[in-house]
Q: What sequence folds into this?
């Protein structure tokens, strides 16, 4: 029998307890032994909860109990979660986490501590919620050189963009509705500004290279400037708009990594990923394109991924599971040096100026919009585009990169 | 160093050699040791081939060489491939295969022999070509009770159906073109009659239950009766037509498994899987829906999956990798007892008869088609539907199940 401790009895933590309980037969069969949640660490008490007698408040109880060999860290944050994870790994207790912030920030260090103490630090739930993506990258696509990863990595922003597209609503309206429904946080910054997607693409890029991509160095742009009008033009041109985390290998040590809204053709597999669903599109040098799709968040999907890690730890007690992610930094190229096309939305009066600044592009006029027009530029260096775009000043109403 | 032997130097076998050679750095890093192809078994010689000096004709050379611990079986068929696989496993040599026919027919027996001899029988490439699906089912979705698997599992038929949809062409025309391009075999029966998809859904269902689904008991219907006219109606009703392998758990021991063309809504994630791409849509009791998408066939994608198995064997020498697939049979329910809706295409004159036989359905008339009409029935038992449909005789031009 293996005793498990759950740190943090919030949404994901309570989901972990629920999955282990509800799918007990399957979990025990796949673990080849019985799993039991022995402790739930939380600052709060949970009177009336079926597991209230497992709730404790002192992490040392878990550390000092040698019968606990697997810990689920579902607290979030990089303070106590970091300390607890480190202490646990140093004692040879494996840790399974859904905490992308901590994985993005201290992943390579915690993996090394785990290796040194013959235990595991697993984080399937940190990217894509319930979508198996960490394991496919680590254990399935092992014969591949991964050339690129493109992902819809945040459910809240994908829900907002999907609603804007389908209902013609504006960002603020849909955000408010999403907040009321609990799909978006009261403080939505981490989602709508792209920070959450940034952490996730940094984790995926790190696994792609086996070296570290520092999330703080990844250029990140959110979706707050996307408007209903942008979707009207996108739709007319057979495009959609998605917040993408993108990573492209330049060579074995160098990558272009970024998070930004992109226009992509409606027949691209990522274009059909709607609502709270996420998907990761992986391009390998032998396999070509593959995609992993599913619920990117939510209590039970995320918990299911954490428990799959617990099962993996149970089956590999005392053994280190392969994960290549060294501290060495991947060099990030300046995304402004990349060449791509842009969509521009501009005031009707700016037609001549836009054509002069971006020759050879394609204009798009919509019958019901007299006040503005759309324009797709030829491929050009991003820095050059941005300089010209900004020089055109208030005539410009918006710009979106094309994939 | 690990010596590898490749059985069969055809499309996939030569791809395996190419992947190991081209991605040598990655393959050796992930294997944590050097992999070397020592023998290539084939009846033919390959003068001028860069690996011609590795080509041998006698399997005993491989069996008797203790330095060969991993074998790639890329011969196909259930004759020699079965004998060779068995002999290799009995000597403790792991076998990695792309041979779905053999896996579907003798999977549980070969897995048991592997277990008894402390080696592995792996078959990631047997379903979905390069798409990681066997490993996600075996190692990722371990905390899930899988409720259903729906897959587009055959690239040839999906290519044909996609072409028919996009070009309005008929089955025979597109098949001939596909044969000319090498996308379809001269003898296309295994693909177009659904037998290939049937083996694959049997393998996936077996892994879903951990028990055996006998592919020979799976009701299988191909795509030869689908017409350009069916696609016209489907398109007008916002549907598409796909050949699906479907498996649905009734309880822990009982399933409904079938292969047939289905109409599915255009916004279903499987509907956007076009051309030679394949996808597997998995529904779990915690995770909900997830999907795995990629190239379902082709030399390098399939070879990449075989090599990922080789790497797994290399990392687990002398250890048995978890795979639940017992000989015990899953009970299959009679698909004719299932309740679903059907699409009917019927001669224009049969309007009254169709409405009388299938009351409460939805008619569909197309302006440019006077000779026939479409009809969507209410959900009804399949056996009841078929009896009534057949009773209407030559008035009926086609029928397709709805998902």
A:
């Amino acid at each position: 029998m293996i005793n498990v401790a759950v740190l943090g009895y919030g949404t994901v933590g309570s989901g972990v307890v629920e999955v282990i309980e509800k799918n007990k037969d399957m979990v025990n069969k796949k673990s080849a032994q019985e799993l039991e949640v022995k402790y739930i660490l939380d600052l709060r008490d949970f009177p009336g909860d079926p597991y209230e007698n497992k709730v404790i408040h002192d992490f040392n109880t878990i550390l000092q109990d040698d019968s606990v060999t697997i810990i689920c860290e579902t607290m979030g944050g990089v303070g106590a979660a970091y300390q607890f994870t480190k202490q646990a790994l140093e004692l040879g207790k494996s840790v399974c986490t859904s905490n992308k912030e901590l994985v993005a920030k201290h992943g390579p260090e915690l993996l090394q501590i785990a290796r040194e103490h013959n235990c595991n630090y697993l984080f399937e739930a940190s990217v894509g919620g319930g979508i198996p993506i960490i394991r496919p990258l680590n254990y399935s696509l092992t014969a591949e050189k991964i050339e690129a990863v493109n992902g819809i990595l945040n459910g809240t922003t994908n829900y907002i963009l999907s609603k804007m597209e389908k209902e013609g609503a504006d960002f603020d309206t849909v955000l408010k509705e999403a907040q009321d429904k609990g799909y978006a946080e009261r403080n939505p910054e981490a989602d709508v500004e792209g920070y959450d997607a940034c952490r996730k693409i940094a984790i995926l890029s790190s696994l792609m290279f086996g070296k570290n991509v520092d999330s703080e160095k990844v250029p990140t742009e959110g979706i707050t400037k996307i408007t209903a009008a942008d979707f009207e033009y996108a739709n007319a041109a057979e495009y959609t708009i998605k917040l993408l985390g993108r990573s492209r290998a330049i060579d074995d040590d160098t990558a272009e990594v970024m998070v930004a809204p992109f226009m992509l053709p409606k027949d691209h597999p990522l274009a059909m990923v709607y609502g709270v669903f996420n998907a990761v599109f992986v391009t390998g040098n032998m396999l070509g394109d593959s995609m992993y799709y599913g619920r990117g968040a939510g209590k039970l999907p995320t918990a299911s991924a954490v428990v799959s890690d617990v099962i993996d730890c149970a089956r590999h007690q005392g053994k280190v599971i392969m994960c290549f992610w060294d501290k060495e930094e991947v060099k990030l190229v300046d995304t402004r040096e990349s060449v791509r096309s842009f969509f521009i939305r501009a005031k009707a009066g700016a037609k001549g100026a836009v054509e002069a600044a971006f020759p050879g592009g394609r204009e798009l006029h919509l019958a019901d919009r007299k006040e503005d027009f759309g324009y797709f530029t030829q491929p050009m260096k991003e820095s050059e585009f941005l300089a010209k775009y900004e020089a055109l000043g208030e005539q410009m109403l918006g710009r979106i990169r094309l994939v």
